[in-house]
């Protein structure tokens, strides 16, 4: 009887303890791989943490380049290396200009990525500058990705980036992930906590992770909070947007950041 009572109490406790989704790392990889050293920090992270999911945004030229083209040989070689890691899901960057870019151009970019050779292809699309207010045009974009066969997926993976909270938008039915925050750490502090609408589909990107009192402990604390909230993915860099392109290089905190997410 005592054992039964104890088990019932244990199950009751487990029932109220939240189970959080595993948080992955989203990487805006906007740097040209002049040599393999350029992407080496990511390659090291993929090898060091094989159980951690990475969502890597491939961006040769604010998109795939010329219509129906193949990427530069340097991209071909280095993407092939990334594809050897089962924990790397690659998505191609497509600019939508907050709904102002011509639909035909957006669809052409999707087609171009889909035409890359499977050995260095991507697995879906990252739609940057997604219009925050729902626009039905994005339905056709999502359909175009999901109806296409990609190298390692029967249906393409879709990430949209309005970069801000969009409430309980219909976008969540169109995308696997939505970036609902992309800003500086100072802005993150002001807006935190980020609204949890569908956390298992939400991503948080924080750049310019600098300032008075910011330390390795601060980074670990923020990552722990994001993981506890159940966000699908996150990216944090201490590169300062007022000084550099924050996605064209890896910050000096990248290795620790990844280790914190994996912890």
TrEMBL record:
<keyword id="KW-0732">Signal</keyword>
<dbReference type="Pfam" id="PF12138">
    <property type="entry name" value="Spherulin4"/>
</dbReference>
<protein>
    <submittedName>
        <fullName>Spherulation-specific family 4</fullName>
    </submittedName>
</protein>
<dbReference type="InterPro" id="IPR021986">
    <property type="entry name" value="Spherulin4"/>
</dbReference>
<feature type="signal peptide">
    <location>
        <begin position="1"/>
        <end position="21"/>
    </location>
</feature>
